[in-house]
Amino acid sequence: MLVDNISKLRWRCRRGMRELDSVLINFLDNFFVDLNQEEKEMFASLLELPDPDLHSFILGNKLSDNEVLVNLLKLIRSSIKSIN
């Protein structure tokens, strides 16, 4: 899948948890376009995770050694402030 296909990514942002839907769609709409290709691919990979794992990563309860993932999660967390 081309990670630049926003409509497919938007569909994959729809989760079983409303909170995740809101966070992921907000990030996609407002920040995704500014990511580099590696970050875009990492975002697409994140969307493959089960909801509990994705939720844990976003909350910071689950950690990673992958620098790209760590930085992307920081961006996603900071984007949460712009939802309200």
Summarize the structure.
By secondary structure, this protein is an all-alpha fold. It has helices at residues 6-13, 18-30, 37-46, 51-59, 67-80. It has one domain (6-80): Flavinator of succinate dehydrogenase (DNA polymerase, domain 1), CATH 1.10.150.
List the main descriptive attributes of the protein structure presented here.
mainly alpha, 5 helices, 64% helix, 84 residues, DNA polymerase, domain 1
Overview of the structural elements:
By secondary structure, the chain is mostly helical. It has one domain (6-80): DNA polymerase, domain 1 (Orthogonal Bundle). It is 64% helix and 0% strand. The chain has helices spanning 6-13, 18-30, 37-46, 51-59, 67-80. Helix 1 packs antiparallel against helix 2 and helix 2 packs across helix 5 (67-80). The chain is globular, with a radius of gyration of 12 Å. The protein starts with 5 loop residues before the first helix and ends with a helix.
What would CATH call the class? Mainly Alpha
What is the averaged pLDDT score?
91
Query: Count of DSSP E strands?
Result: 0
CATH architectural type = Orthogonal Bundle
Strand-and-helix sequence, N→C?
HHHHH
Low-confidence stretches: none
How many domains is the backbone divided into? 1
End-to-end gap:
31 Å
The radius of gyration computed from the alpha-carbon positions, rounded to a whole number of angstroms, is: 12 Å
* Residues in β-strands, percent: under 5%
Largest sheet: none
CATH superfamily: Flavinator of succinate dehydrogenase
User: Given the structure, what is the number of helices?
Assistant: 5
- Helix proportion: 55-70%
